[in-house]
Amino acid sequence: MSDHLAAGYDLAVFDLDGVVFLIDKPIPGAAEAVERLRADGTAVAYATNNASRRAGEVAALLTGMGVSAAPAEVLTSAGAAAALIAEQVPAGSPVLVVGAEALRAEVRDAGLVPVDSAEDEPVAVVQGYGPEVGWKILSEAALAIRAGATWYATNTDRTLPSPRGPLPGNGSLVAVIRTALDRDPDVVVGKPQPALFTTAASLAKADHPLAIGDRLDTDIQGAVTAGMDSLLVLTGVSGPTDLLSAPAERRPTFVAADLSALFRSADQARIPATEVQGWQLTRDGDRATLSGAGDPVDALRLLCGATWDGLPPANLEPGSPEATELLHSWGL
Ligand SMILES: [Mg+2]
């Protein structure tokens, strides 16, 4: 008998970077979490906006890090984009591919013909991140879109994390064509669009899936749009101040320091919280004072109750040395 958080769900859909790994290193506890979910009978899926690897390559990468994954459990924005285009145009249609070889292969496997020139009269342009994407192919894409091809972007993440700092992501390359043509893509496939999550749920035949991510603007907003509960883990991009000031469409169901929360009581991660161990919050008009001491995530859950209710995060004040240190560490 268990009331732990994951027990309430029949599928856990993991974002990858910042949740399961950071660049090329597994996040401590991720492999154990996946194994324990499987042992408990909870299905596992992985959903990534990165369009430069195929599902099989992602599964091999995860397995190599000690995180068990089957190709069928992996949803990439490249695979989802190709599947979507195949639904919307006749089989065998020419599609101009801007991106990595993985995207080209997905387009081919979806029964379409990848091309690289506007002269081939593509009915669609699909654009994903690829390290070799340059002016020439971007120009062909711009010409094809101007001639009437439907423009699909696998995702619009502006940056890619790297050990040297953020690098231009697909959103930055999409912005090249957006600037040249003064228009947006017709379709964006990846998160925060709900397609990766809803496809994962339907493939696993899940009735009650949980999305797990590190970014409010992609993972959590995608889960909210898909009507799914979500867990924000603080091992990646979004931090406490992002959560405190999150608009309604980017608010997760749960927050936790890491994936170990999946195996503790759901009430220890649910937000907002009105009462937590160790911390107290006193409202006084448009200000609120945090006092006491305890787990930082508990304080965060308590504070979300005030800021999601309209209190500006800047109006939070400390009422104990521990609260002073905590708010300072969050830059408040
Ligand atoms: Mg991530």
Key descriptive features of the protein:
332 residues, 3 domains, six-stranded parallel sheet, Rossmann fold, binds magnesium ion, HAD-SF_hydro_IIA, alpha/beta, phosphatase activity, HAD-like_sf, 20% strand, GNAT-like, 11 helices, 18 strands
Write a short abstract of this structure.
The protein has helices at 30-39, 55-64, 77-88, 101-109, 135-146, 170-181, 195-203, 216-226, 240-244, 296-307, 321-329, and strands spanning 11-14, 21-22, 25-26, 43-48, 74-76, 94-98, 113-115, 124-127, 150-153, 159-160, 167-168, 187-188, 209-213, 229-233, 254-256, 279-284, 287-292, 316-318. It is of the alpha/beta class and 332 residues long.
Report on this structure.
This protein has 332 residues and is an alpha/beta fold. The chain folds into 3 domains: 5-49 and 192-268, Rossmann fold, CATH 3.40.50.1000; 78-187, HAD superfamily/HAD-like (Rossmann fold); 279-329, no CATH class. Helix content is 33%, strand content 20%. The chain has 11 helices and 18 strands. The protein has helices at 30-39, 55-64, 77-88, 101-109, 135-146, 170-181, 195-203, 216-226, 240-244, 296-307, 321-329; strands at 11-14, 21-22, 25-26, 43-48, 74-76, 94-98, 113-115, 124-127, 150-153, 159-160, 167-168, 187-188, 209-213, 229-233, 254-256, 279-284, 287-292, 316-318. The strands form 5 sheets. A 6-stranded parallel sheet has the order 5-4-1-13-14-15. Strands 7-6-8-9-12 form a 5-stranded parallel sheet, sandwiched between helices. A hairpin with a 6-residue loop joins β10 and β11. α3 (77-88) runs parallel beside α4 (101-109) and α5 (135-146) packs across α6. The radius of gyration is 22 Å and the shape is globular. The two termini are 41 Å apart. The model has no long low-confidence stretch (mean pLDDT 95). The structure holds magnesium ion. Residues 15, 17-19, 213-215, 236 line the site of magnesium ion.
